[in-house]
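May I ask for whichever protein you like with its backbone structure tokens?
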Amino acid sequence: MRTRVVMVLAVAAILLGGVLVVPAAYAKFTGGDAADAAGPTPSGTPPTVPPTIVEPPQPTLAAAPVKVKVDGFFSWAMLDRRTGEISGSPNSAKATSSTESMIKVWIVSDFLRRTQENGETPSKSRLAQASKAIRDSDDNAAGALYSAGGGTAVTRRMIKTCGLTNTRLGSVPGYVGWWSFTEMSAQDAARLGQCVKEGKAAGPKWTPWVLAEMTKVRGTTAAKDQHETTGGGRWGIIDGLPKEILAQAPVSIKNGWTPLVYDGNWHISCLAISEDWVLAVQTRYPTSKGLKYGAGVCGNVATQLVTPKVGAALKMPAASTGAQG
């Protein structure tokens, strides 16, 4: 009898389009509860979901305000290689300073590119000079390559090839034509770095070699590493970069530094090239403050441009997937 009643009610439910009538009616005729007939209800308390660890974006350098107090001249510029935009200090486009040994990266690149264009291969001795000019900032090696490239013609090719807008031959009496006295704005220094990175300076064959040599610059600001015609140059911008940036990919650098007698100042030019950006910093200050002071200025700029700031991973609650009461 009970089975027959259920079958009748099921047919009625289908005809009425109301499937929910069946369990209620079945309960009524069997003496049971509607909830029992429909099955267990979901719990009103959602299950505990552990927090999800959300890693912050990888740090890089990006345009930001920079405040550095310098007892003398100061300028900086950063070229964002993803957008091509240049940011920097208010004087970064117009104010200039001597490049010192920073320009050696162009002298080397220009020599190697022209050698390749002439269908030649640089001799072992020339390649050794190119390496020393970058790794040890060897003045004699750079001077030999500069002379081989035609002297001031090397600088003029740099201005044209890299599209520099505020760079000129040095004009200090007694030093006109010297590569180290080339006057350049911070923005042009950033453009020079981009010129090297994108392959215009050294050409497709030698660009990877030049960038790799720039990662092997050695020596510190300590007096033991500084000599009359060579010097340790592994300092500055890279000192201000967190290990998270340095771990992503090698950063290529070339610094220029000289205490000049004619004005009593250190002349510092720092250049660093990464996959995403090129940063240039220039400063001049009294020689009494030492080389480490200028290295710190360059590093300070880099630190202030790091974004996002390096820190612990954020703990964010995950979206709940449990039943709601």
Remarks:
- The CA atoms of residues 65 and 175 lie 36 Å apart.
- Residues 2-40 form one domain.
